[in-house]
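explain this chain.
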Amino acid sequence: MKFNPLTESAVDTAVLENEYKSARQIGAIRLGDTCFMFKSRMKNYYIPYSDIKRCFRRVMGVNLKMCCGKGEMQVENLVIGDDEKELAVIQLPGTRAAQELMKDLKERMPDCDFSAPKREEPAIAVQGGAALV
């Protein structure tokens, strides 16, 4: 089995194969002893826990067209990143799986930041009681 690294750190293939077999699986994600692994399309990726600096859930609304009108479905994603950028965005099977996964990740990576980065808000100038954007 071939594993593709998402960071500069390399791990021995034999170690990754053993970890992959014994890892806990949640959807497309596997939590090994030293690496976070996931499958995307036909490839297996891994990130050593030591390279992960930020990890958070991102819930996105997806518009649906149904027989009775329109609706929206909430899709759970796990975002894995380092200090500078997002390394991976992985779709999760549901809210319960996302909660279980975050609980396990917090145990495995106590030094990681589990909050989403703050968004840059546009400055709003107030002039004469009216907001200018």
Summary: Residues 95-108 form the longest helix (14 residues). Helices lie at 13-22, 95-108. The beta strands are 3-5, 24-26, 29-31, 35-40, 43-48, 54-66, 69-81, 86-91, 125-127, 130-132.
